[in-house]
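Worked example (supplementary).
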Amino acid sequence: MIPRYQTILFSVLVLASVVMGVALWNTLDRAHQRLLSSDESAPTQAPEVAPAEQATIMAASDADGSLLAQAQSLPLPSDPGARARAVLGKLLDLYAAADAAHPVAGGANSIEQVFLLPAQNLEGRNGEAKMNGTGQSSPSNDAAATGDEMAVVNLTGAFVAGHPSGIETETLTVMSICGTLHANLPRVTQVRFLVDGQPRATLAGHVDLTRTYLTAEAAPKP
Amino acid sequence: MVALTALLAAVLGGPSGTIEINAVSQVAPPHPGSPAGSANPPSRFVVVLDAAHGGDDAGGRLNSQAEKDFTLALSVKLRSRLAARGIQVVTTRESDAAVDLNRRAEMANHANAQACLSLHGTESGSGVHLFVSNMAPIQQARFAAWKTAQAAWVTRSLALAGTLNSALLQAGMSVTLGRTALPAVDSMTCPAVAVEIAPERDAGKKLVAELDNPGYQARVAEALAAALLEWHTDVWRVTEVHQP
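After joint prediction of all chains, the assembly is encoded as:
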Protein backbone atom coordinates (compact mmCIF):
# COMPACT_ATOMS: atom_id res chain seq x y z
CA MET A 1 0.00 0.00 0.00
CA ILE A 2 1.48 3.34 -1.10
CA PRO A 3 1.14 6.01 1.55
CA ARG A 4 -1.09 8.94 0.65
CA TYR A 5 1.63 11.54 1.05
CA GLN A 6 3.82 9.73 -1.51
CA THR A 7 0.99 9.74 -4.04
CA ILE A 8 0.54 13.47 -3.59
CA LEU A 9 4.29 14.10 -3.86
CA PHE A 10 4.51 12.02 -7.02
CA SER A 11 1.60 13.93 -8.58
CA VAL A 12 3.17 17.28 -7.76
CA LEU A 13 6.51 16.23 -9.28
CA VAL A 14 4.79 15.00 -12.47
CA LEU A 15 2.88 18.28 -12.73
CA ALA A 16 6.07 20.30 -12.19
CA SER A 17 7.84 18.30 -14.89
CA VAL A 18 5.06 19.02 -17.35
CA VAL A 19 5.06 22.77 -16.53
CA MET A 20 8.83 22.98 -16.89
CA GLY A 21 8.66 21.11 -20.19
CA VAL A 22 6.10 23.59 -21.54
CA ALA A 23 8.16 26.56 -20.33
CA LEU A 24 11.29 25.15 -21.97
CA TRP A 25 9.45 24.57 -25.20
CA ASN A 26 8.19 28.18 -25.22
CA THR A 27 11.68 29.53 -24.48
CA LEU A 28 13.17 27.54 -27.33
CA ASP A 29 10.42 28.72 -29.65
CA ARG A 30 11.04 32.40 -28.75
CA ALA A 31 14.78 31.99 -29.27
CA HIS A 32 14.14 30.44 -32.66
CA GLN A 33 11.85 33.31 -33.67
CA ARG A 34 14.50 35.82 -32.54
CA LEU A 35 17.12 34.13 -34.69
CA LEU A 36 14.81 34.17 -37.70
CA SER A 37 14.05 37.87 -37.29
CA SER A 38 17.77 38.75 -37.06
CA ASP A 39 18.32 36.84 -40.27
CA GLU A 40 15.83 39.14 -41.94
CA SER A 41 17.69 42.25 -40.77
CA ALA A 42 21.07 40.98 -41.93
CA PRO A 43 22.49 42.80 -44.98
CA THR A 44 21.54 41.11 -48.21
CA GLN A 45 23.33 43.62 -50.42
CA ALA A 46 26.96 44.59 -50.41
CA PRO A 47 27.46 48.26 -49.41
CA GLU A 48 27.76 50.55 -52.36
CA VAL A 49 31.32 51.79 -52.83
CA ALA A 50 31.42 55.44 -53.81
CA PRO A 51 33.44 56.22 -56.90
CA ALA A 52 36.86 57.76 -56.39
CA GLU A 53 36.98 61.50 -56.94
CA GLN A 54 39.57 64.21 -56.68
CA ALA A 55 39.50 65.98 -53.31
CA THR A 56 41.55 68.93 -52.14
CA ILE A 57 43.24 68.39 -48.80
CA MET A 58 44.66 71.46 -47.04
CA ALA A 59 47.58 69.81 -45.25
CA ALA A 60 49.56 71.65 -42.60
CA SER A 61 53.32 71.79 -42.27
CA ASP A 62 54.97 72.45 -38.92
CA ALA A 63 58.22 73.47 -40.60
CA ASP A 64 56.92 76.78 -41.89
CA GLY A 65 53.48 76.95 -40.29
CA SER A 66 51.69 76.84 -43.63
CA LEU A 67 48.75 75.06 -45.24
CA LEU A 68 49.42 73.45 -48.61
CA ALA A 69 46.69 72.22 -50.97
CA GLN A 70 47.12 68.60 -52.05
CA ALA A 71 45.02 66.78 -54.64
CA GLN A 72 44.01 63.32 -53.43
CA SER A 73 41.86 60.68 -55.08
CA LEU A 74 39.45 58.97 -52.67
CA PRO A 75 35.92 57.53 -52.63
CA LEU A 76 33.52 60.38 -51.85
CA PRO A 77 29.92 59.63 -50.88
CA SER A 78 27.20 61.84 -52.31
CA ASP A 79 25.78 62.73 -48.89
CA PRO A 80 27.46 66.01 -47.85
CA GLY A 81 27.92 64.98 -44.22
CA ALA A 82 29.53 61.68 -45.16
CA ARG A 83 31.60 63.50 -47.79
CA ALA A 84 32.87 65.93 -45.17
CA ARG A 85 33.80 63.04 -42.89
CA ALA A 86 35.61 61.29 -45.73
CA VAL A 87 37.81 64.27 -46.65
CA LEU A 88 38.61 64.99 -42.99
CA GLY A 89 39.42 61.31 -42.49
CA LYS A 90 41.90 61.53 -45.36
CA LEU A 91 43.44 64.67 -43.84
CA LEU A 92 43.94 62.99 -40.46
CA ASP A 93 45.31 59.86 -42.16
CA LEU A 94 48.00 62.07 -43.70
CA TYR A 95 48.79 63.47 -40.24
CA ALA A 96 49.01 59.96 -38.76
CA ALA A 97 51.54 58.81 -41.38
CA ALA A 98 55.10 58.17 -40.22
CA ASP A 99 56.67 60.97 -42.28
CA ALA A 100 53.91 63.53 -41.71
CA ALA A 101 54.84 67.22 -41.93
CA HIS A 102 52.31 67.83 -39.13
CA PRO A 103 52.34 64.67 -37.04
CA VAL A 104 49.16 63.96 -35.09
CA ALA A 105 48.15 60.45 -34.04
CA GLY A 106 44.68 59.09 -34.58
CA GLY A 107 43.90 58.93 -38.27
CA ALA A 108 40.51 58.82 -39.95
CA ASN A 109 38.76 57.23 -36.97
CA SER A 110 39.32 60.45 -35.01
CA ILE A 111 36.34 62.03 -36.76
CA GLU A 112 33.19 60.61 -35.18
CA GLN A 113 30.65 62.64 -37.14
CA VAL A 114 30.29 65.79 -39.18
CA PHE A 115 26.90 67.52 -39.07
CA LEU A 116 25.93 70.22 -41.54
CA LEU A 117 23.56 72.94 -40.34
CA PRO A 118 22.42 76.31 -41.68
CA ALA A 119 25.14 78.86 -40.93
CA GLN A 120 24.73 81.31 -38.09
CA ASN A 121 24.61 84.98 -38.90
CA LEU A 122 27.91 86.47 -37.84
CA GLU A 123 28.90 89.95 -38.80
CA GLY A 124 32.48 89.63 -39.96
CA ARG A 125 33.86 87.69 -37.00
CA ASN A 126 32.78 86.03 -33.83
CA GLY A 127 33.53 89.16 -31.93
CA GLU A 128 30.98 91.09 -33.89
CA ALA A 129 28.13 88.66 -33.65
CA LYS A 130 24.94 90.56 -34.14
CA MET A 131 23.20 90.86 -30.80
CA ASN A 132 19.56 91.17 -30.03
CA GLY A 133 18.14 92.75 -26.94
CA THR A 134 18.91 89.79 -24.74
CA GLY A 135 22.52 89.54 -25.73
CA GLN A 136 21.94 86.33 -27.68
CA SER A 137 23.15 85.85 -31.21
CA SER A 138 20.31 86.73 -33.49
CA PRO A 139 19.01 83.93 -35.67
CA SER A 140 20.41 83.40 -39.10
CA ASN A 141 18.78 85.30 -41.93
CA ASP A 142 21.40 86.39 -44.43
CA ALA A 143 23.44 83.22 -44.02
CA ALA A 144 20.39 81.03 -44.55
CA ALA A 145 19.41 83.05 -47.59
CA THR A 146 22.78 82.44 -49.21
CA GLY A 147 22.68 78.72 -48.36
CA ASP A 148 25.83 78.90 -46.29
CA GLU A 149 26.35 76.00 -43.92
CA MET A 150 28.02 75.37 -40.61
CA ALA A 151 29.92 72.11 -40.15
CA VAL A 152 29.92 70.70 -36.65
CA VAL A 153 32.91 68.38 -36.36
CA ASN A 154 32.71 65.83 -33.56
CA LEU A 155 36.23 64.65 -32.68
CA THR A 156 37.08 61.68 -30.51
CA GLY A 157 38.48 62.22 -27.03
CA ALA A 158 41.43 59.97 -27.90
CA PHE A 159 42.44 62.26 -30.77
CA VAL A 160 42.34 65.34 -28.58
CA ALA A 161 44.17 63.60 -25.73
CA GLY A 162 46.95 62.57 -28.11
CA HIS A 163 47.25 65.90 -29.92
CA PRO A 164 50.62 67.64 -29.42
CA SER A 165 50.36 70.74 -27.25
CA GLY A 166 51.31 74.12 -28.71
CA ILE A 167 49.72 77.19 -30.23
CA GLU A 168 51.13 76.65 -33.70
CA THR A 169 50.42 72.94 -33.96
CA GLU A 170 46.88 73.30 -32.59
CA THR A 171 46.14 76.28 -34.84
CA LEU A 172 47.35 74.36 -37.88
CA THR A 173 45.11 71.39 -37.07
CA VAL A 174 42.04 73.60 -36.69
CA MET A 175 42.82 75.69 -39.76
CA SER A 176 43.54 72.67 -41.93
CA ILE A 177 40.20 71.11 -40.95
CA CYS A 178 38.42 74.37 -41.79
CA GLY A 179 40.34 74.77 -45.05
CA THR A 180 39.76 71.18 -46.16
CA LEU A 181 36.03 71.44 -45.48
CA HIS A 182 35.74 74.68 -47.44
CA ALA A 183 37.84 73.39 -50.35
CA ASN A 184 35.54 70.41 -50.86
CA LEU A 185 32.23 71.82 -49.63
CA PRO A 186 32.30 75.50 -50.61
CA ARG A 187 28.97 76.19 -48.91
CA VAL A 188 30.57 75.40 -45.55
CA THR A 189 31.60 78.81 -44.26
CA GLN A 190 31.62 78.15 -40.51
CA VAL A 191 33.01 75.32 -38.41
CA ARG A 192 32.45 74.39 -34.78
CA PHE A 193 33.97 71.58 -32.79
CA LEU A 194 32.78 69.02 -30.27
CA VAL A 195 34.80 66.36 -28.51
CA ASP A 196 32.92 63.14 -27.77
CA GLY A 197 29.73 65.10 -28.33
CA GLN A 198 30.51 67.79 -25.77
CA PRO A 199 31.89 71.32 -26.06
CA ARG A 200 35.52 71.55 -24.96
CA ALA A 201 37.50 74.64 -23.97
CA THR A 202 40.71 74.02 -25.92
CA LEU A 203 42.17 71.49 -28.33
CA ALA A 204 45.29 70.63 -26.32
CA GLY A 205 45.58 73.44 -23.81
CA HIS A 206 45.85 76.42 -26.13
CA VAL A 207 43.54 77.01 -29.09
CA ASP A 208 39.93 77.86 -28.33
CA LEU A 209 37.51 75.12 -29.40
CA THR A 210 34.36 76.87 -28.18
CA ARG A 211 34.17 79.50 -30.88
CA THR A 212 32.84 79.44 -34.41
CA TYR A 213 35.65 79.39 -36.95
CA LEU A 214 35.24 80.95 -40.38
CA THR A 215 36.59 78.83 -43.20
CA ALA A 216 37.66 82.00 -45.03
CA GLU A 217 40.45 82.31 -42.43
CA ALA A 218 42.00 79.09 -43.72
CA ALA A 219 41.58 79.84 -47.42
CA PRO A 220 44.86 80.28 -49.32
CA LYS A 221 45.75 83.94 -49.67
CA PRO A 222 46.04 85.20 -53.25
CA MET B 1 17.76 60.88 -32.85
CA VAL B 2 17.75 61.89 -29.21
CA ALA B 3 21.54 61.71 -29.11
CA LEU B 4 21.78 63.78 -32.29
CA THR B 5 19.46 66.40 -30.85
CA ALA B 6 21.51 66.52 -27.67
CA LEU B 7 24.69 66.96 -29.69
CA LEU B 8 23.26 69.81 -31.70
CA ALA B 9 21.83 71.42 -28.58
CA ALA B 10 25.26 71.21 -26.99
CA VAL B 11 26.73 73.05 -29.96
CA LEU B 12 24.12 75.71 -30.41
CA GLY B 13 23.17 76.20 -26.80
CA GLY B 14 26.58 75.77 -25.21
CA PRO B 15 28.37 78.41 -23.29
CA SER B 16 29.88 79.88 -26.41
CA GLY B 17 26.75 79.65 -28.47
CA THR B 18 25.77 82.92 -26.94
CA ILE B 19 27.82 86.02 -26.59
CA GLU B 20 28.60 86.86 -23.00
CA ILE B 21 27.93 90.44 -22.22
CA ASN B 22 29.66 90.50 -18.87
CA ALA B 23 31.11 93.66 -20.14
CA VAL B 24 34.68 94.66 -19.75
CA SER B 25 34.27 98.21 -18.75
CA GLN B 26 36.79 100.01 -20.89
CA VAL B 27 36.35 103.29 -19.10
CA ALA B 28 39.96 103.77 -18.15
CA PRO B 29 41.53 106.91 -19.62
CA PRO B 30 42.72 106.24 -23.13
CA HIS B 31 46.43 106.18 -23.83
CA PRO B 32 48.64 105.87 -26.90
CA GLY B 33 48.49 102.14 -26.67
CA SER B 34 44.77 102.44 -27.07
CA PRO B 35 43.13 101.36 -30.29
CA ALA B 36 42.13 104.85 -31.24
CA GLY B 37 45.61 106.22 -30.67
CA SER B 38 44.34 108.83 -28.29
CA ALA B 39 46.40 111.93 -27.61
CA ASN B 40 46.36 111.54 -23.85
CA PRO B 41 49.84 110.51 -22.69
CA PRO B 42 50.14 107.39 -20.58
CA SER B 43 50.94 108.04 -16.95
CA ARG B 44 53.29 105.04 -17.00
CA PHE B 45 54.47 102.32 -19.35
CA VAL B 46 53.34 98.92 -18.13
CA VAL B 47 54.04 95.52 -19.64
CA VAL B 48 52.06 92.44 -18.62
CA LEU B 49 53.90 89.10 -18.77
CA ASP B 50 51.60 86.10 -18.72
CA ALA B 51 53.54 82.90 -18.07
CA ALA B 52 51.10 80.37 -19.49
CA HIS B 53 49.85 77.32 -17.57
CA GLY B 54 50.87 76.59 -13.96
CA GLY B 55 49.74 74.43 -11.07
CA ASP B 56 47.78 71.39 -12.25
CA ASP B 57 47.93 72.65 -15.82
CA ALA B 58 51.46 71.65 -16.85
CA GLY B 59 50.95 72.58 -20.51
CA GLY B 60 52.90 70.64 -23.11
CA ARG B 61 55.79 68.34 -22.33
CA LEU B 62 58.99 69.95 -23.56
CA ASN B 63 62.38 68.28 -23.86
CA SER B 64 63.26 68.03 -20.19
CA GLN B 65 60.65 70.13 -18.48
CA ALA B 66 57.00 71.02 -18.39
CA GLU B 67 55.81 74.01 -20.40
CA LYS B 68 54.65 75.72 -17.19
CA ASP B 69 58.22 75.71 -15.82
CA PHE B 70 59.69 76.99 -19.05
CA THR B 71 57.23 79.88 -19.32
CA LEU B 72 57.81 80.86 -15.69
CA ALA B 73 61.59 80.84 -16.15
CA LEU B 74 61.29 82.96 -19.29
CA SER B 75 58.90 85.35 -17.55
CA VAL B 76 61.37 85.84 -14.70
CA LYS B 77 64.27 86.45 -17.11
CA LEU B 78 62.25 88.93 -19.16
CA ARG B 79 60.89 90.72 -16.12
CA SER B 80 64.37 91.36 -14.74
CA ARG B 81 65.56 92.71 -18.12
CA LEU B 82 62.55 95.02 -18.44
CA ALA B 83 62.90 96.22 -14.86
CA ALA B 84 66.57 97.02 -15.56
CA ARG B 85 65.35 99.25 -18.41
CA GLY B 86 62.93 101.07 -16.13
CA ILE B 87 59.80 99.41 -17.47
CA GLN B 88 57.07 98.51 -15.01
CA VAL B 89 56.10 94.86 -15.25
CA VAL B 90 52.99 93.05 -14.04
CA THR B 91 53.17 89.25 -14.06
CA THR B 92 50.19 86.93 -13.90
CA ARG B 93 52.11 84.43 -11.78
CA GLU B 94 55.40 84.31 -9.91
CA SER B 95 55.31 80.67 -8.87
CA ASP B 96 53.93 77.31 -9.92
CA ALA B 97 50.37 78.39 -9.26
CA ALA B 98 47.22 77.66 -11.22
CA VAL B 99 45.73 80.85 -12.62
CA ASP B 100 42.40 80.75 -14.44
CA LEU B 101 42.41 82.05 -18.02
CA ASN B 102 39.79 84.67 -17.20
CA ARG B 103 41.81 85.75 -14.17
CA ARG B 104 44.87 86.28 -16.40
CA ALA B 105 42.88 88.54 -18.69
CA GLU B 106 41.43 90.39 -15.68
CA MET B 107 44.92 91.05 -14.34
CA ALA B 108 46.09 92.32 -17.72
CA ASN B 109 43.04 94.55 -18.13
CA HIS B 110 43.34 96.03 -14.64
CA ALA B 111 47.01 96.84 -15.30
CA ASN B 112 45.95 99.15 -18.16
CA ALA B 113 49.10 97.99 -19.93
CA GLN B 114 50.69 99.17 -23.16
CA ALA B 115 51.83 95.64 -24.03
CA CYS B 116 50.73 92.18 -22.95
CA LEU B 117 52.78 89.09 -23.79
CA SER B 118 51.45 85.58 -23.24
CA LEU B 119 54.49 83.30 -23.02
CA HIS B 120 54.38 79.70 -24.26
CA GLY B 121 56.77 76.92 -25.24
CA THR B 122 56.52 74.09 -27.74
CA GLU B 123 58.60 71.28 -29.21
CA SER B 124 57.06 71.62 -32.68
CA GLY B 125 58.40 73.99 -35.31
CA SER B 126 61.43 76.16 -34.81
CA GLY B 127 62.36 79.61 -33.59
CA VAL B 128 59.79 82.00 -32.21
CA HIS B 129 56.10 81.96 -33.17
CA LEU B 130 54.19 85.20 -32.72
CA PHE B 131 50.43 84.99 -32.66
CA VAL B 132 47.83 87.75 -32.66
CA SER B 133 44.10 87.21 -32.17
CA ASN B 134 42.39 86.34 -35.43
CA MET B 135 39.37 88.50 -34.70
CA ALA B 136 38.70 91.27 -37.19
CA PRO B 137 39.43 94.76 -35.85
CA ILE B 138 36.45 96.75 -34.63
CA GLN B 139 35.98 100.23 -33.22
CA GLN B 140 36.35 100.55 -29.50
CA ALA B 141 33.03 100.64 -27.67
CA ARG B 142 32.26 101.66 -24.12
CA PHE B 143 31.38 98.08 -23.32
CA ALA B 144 32.97 95.07 -24.95
CA ALA B 145 31.97 91.43 -24.85
CA TRP B 146 34.32 89.57 -22.54
CA LYS B 147 35.24 86.81 -24.96
CA THR B 148 35.99 89.22 -27.81
CA ALA B 149 37.37 92.26 -26.00
CA GLN B 150 40.64 91.99 -27.94
CA ALA B 151 38.87 92.82 -31.21
CA ALA B 152 39.19 96.56 -30.51
CA TRP B 153 42.94 96.14 -29.94
CA VAL B 154 43.88 93.88 -32.82
CA THR B 155 45.39 96.66 -34.92
CA ARG B 156 47.72 97.67 -32.09
CA SER B 157 48.47 94.02 -31.37
CA LEU B 158 49.55 93.53 -34.98
CA ALA B 159 51.82 96.58 -34.66
CA LEU B 160 53.32 95.15 -31.47
CA ALA B 161 53.88 91.81 -33.23
CA GLY B 162 55.68 93.70 -36.00
CA THR B 163 58.01 95.33 -33.48
CA LEU B 164 58.71 91.98 -31.80
CA ASN B 165 59.31 90.37 -35.19
CA SER B 166 61.87 93.01 -36.15
CA ALA B 167 63.79 92.65 -32.90
CA LEU B 168 63.83 88.86 -33.06
CA LEU B 169 64.99 88.84 -36.67
CA GLN B 170 67.67 91.34 -35.74
CA ALA B 171 68.79 88.90 -33.04
CA GLY B 172 69.19 86.24 -35.73
CA MET B 173 66.17 84.13 -34.88
CA SER B 174 63.62 82.63 -37.22
CA VAL B 175 60.13 83.97 -36.64
CA THR B 176 56.73 82.66 -37.70
CA LEU B 177 53.81 85.10 -37.61
CA GLY B 178 50.25 83.85 -37.28
CA ARG B 179 46.73 84.54 -36.14
CA THR B 180 44.85 82.30 -33.73
CA ALA B 181 42.15 82.13 -31.06
CA LEU B 182 43.43 81.93 -27.50
CA PRO B 183 40.85 82.34 -24.73
CA ALA B 184 42.98 84.53 -22.42
CA VAL B 185 44.41 86.77 -25.15
CA ASP B 186 40.99 87.26 -26.77
CA SER B 187 39.74 88.85 -23.54
CA MET B 188 42.63 91.27 -23.07
CA THR B 189 42.14 94.99 -23.59
CA CYS B 190 45.72 95.85 -24.47
CA PRO B 191 48.05 95.28 -27.41
CA ALA B 192 48.50 91.54 -26.88
CA VAL B 193 50.73 88.96 -28.55
CA ALA B 194 51.19 85.27 -27.73
CA VAL B 195 54.90 84.43 -27.93
CA GLU B 196 55.58 80.73 -28.41
CA ILE B 197 59.20 79.62 -28.23
CA ALA B 198 60.26 76.50 -30.12
CA PRO B 199 63.74 74.94 -30.26
CA GLU B 200 66.21 76.76 -32.47
CA ARG B 201 67.00 74.93 -35.72
CA ASP B 202 69.21 75.79 -38.66
CA ALA B 203 68.14 76.00 -42.32
CA GLY B 204 68.44 72.23 -42.61
CA LYS B 205 66.10 71.82 -39.62
CA LYS B 206 68.99 70.51 -37.55
CA LEU B 207 68.65 71.26 -33.84
CA VAL B 208 70.83 74.17 -32.70
CA ALA B 209 69.48 74.92 -29.24
CA GLU B 210 66.90 73.18 -27.06
CA LEU B 211 64.39 75.14 -25.00
CA ASP B 212 66.25 74.37 -21.77
CA ASN B 213 69.42 75.95 -23.13
CA PRO B 214 70.05 78.95 -20.83
CA GLY B 215 71.88 80.83 -23.56
CA TYR B 216 68.93 80.46 -25.95
CA GLN B 217 66.48 81.57 -23.29
CA ALA B 218 68.63 84.59 -22.52
CA ARG B 219 68.85 85.57 -26.20
CA VAL B 220 65.08 85.32 -26.60
CA ALA B 221 64.49 87.34 -23.42
CA GLU B 222 67.03 89.96 -24.53
CA ALA B 223 65.42 90.32 -27.96
CA LEU B 224 61.93 90.60 -26.45
CA ALA B 225 63.15 93.20 -23.95
CA ALA B 226 64.75 95.22 -26.76
CA ALA B 227 61.50 95.01 -28.74
CA LEU B 228 59.44 96.24 -25.79
CA LEU B 229 61.85 99.11 -25.24
CA GLU B 230 61.39 100.02 -28.91
CA TRP B 231 57.62 99.76 -28.45
CA HIS B 232 57.90 102.03 -25.44
CA THR B 233 59.74 104.59 -27.56
CA ASP B 234 57.09 104.31 -30.27
CA VAL B 235 54.33 104.89 -27.75
CA TRP B 236 55.93 108.09 -26.50
CA ARG B 237 56.65 109.24 -30.05
CA VAL B 238 52.96 108.85 -30.89
CA THR B 239 52.10 110.79 -27.75
CA GLU B 240 54.35 113.70 -28.66
CA VAL B 241 52.98 113.87 -32.21
CA HIS B 242 49.43 114.04 -30.93
CA GLN B 243 50.07 116.59 -28.20
CA PRO B 244 49.32 120.24 -29.03
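Two points are worth noting when inspecting this output. DSSP finds five helices and six strands in chain A. Confidence is low (pLDDT under 50) at residues 124-140 of chain A.
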